[in-house]
Amino acid sequence: DNGASAVTTAPTIDSTKTKVSFNITLSKPGDSYEFSVDAVNKGTIDAMLSGFSATSLTADQQKYLTYTVTYGDGATISTKDYLKKGTSETIRVRVRFRDDLTATDLPSSAETLNLTATFVYVQADSTAKDRSTPSILCKRADSSTGTSGKLTLADKFYCDVNGDGT
After folding, report:
1. Which end of the chain is less congested by CB atoms within 10 angstroms, N or C?
2. How much helix, strand and coil, in percent to the nearest 5, is found in the chain?
3. What is the gyration radius of the CA atoms in the chain, in angstroms?
């Protein structure tokens, strides 16, 4: 909390331990609220994320607010993400009142947001994706051409556009 917001309901985790909820009021551009929560696999089998959802902001709210739920390192949360037994992942939740606004984007009054993020894990199978092994998104097609670190107009690349390693 940057000291400029009002937390009407602090983050709470439901009884199924899959959903975190909170209520927040941000009053002016630059205000923000952020917290972290850990997804923990205390079980005896590896798990993978089968479902993830977060409250959607309305079109009007998106003009002046951002709401993100990411891993602690800022990486995107995706279904099939692997959570090995006995490990945990830090989840970062952030709501921010944008500061790049025009007067027409500002709301007429502060509103309390009721926000949630839900994570559903199942037993991992062969389709689980390990976040600890970074994948190369694009690489130069022929590394023997050109100068290392310098790109030229004719350089060609192979890119993994859907994250499947191909």
Report:
1. C
2. 5, 45, 50
3. 20
Taking residues 9-21, report their average pLDDT. Answer: 92
Task: Collect contacts of 98-107 with beta carbons under 8 A, ≥24 apart.
Answer: 98/29, 98/63, 98/64, 98/65, 98/66, 99/29, 99/30, 101/29, 101/63, 101/64, 105/63, 105/64, 106/29, 106/64, 107/60, 107/64
83 neighbors 121 (Cβ within 8 angstroms)? yes
Percent of the chain with pLDDT over 70: 85
| Pairwise CA distance, residues 159 & 113, whole Å | 39
Q: Phi/psi of residue 66, each to 5°?
A: -125, 140
Mean pLDDT along residues 51-78: 91
Angstrom distances, CA of residue 161 to CA of 30, 112, 155: 34, 38, 18
Separation CA 11–CA 138 (nearest Å): 38
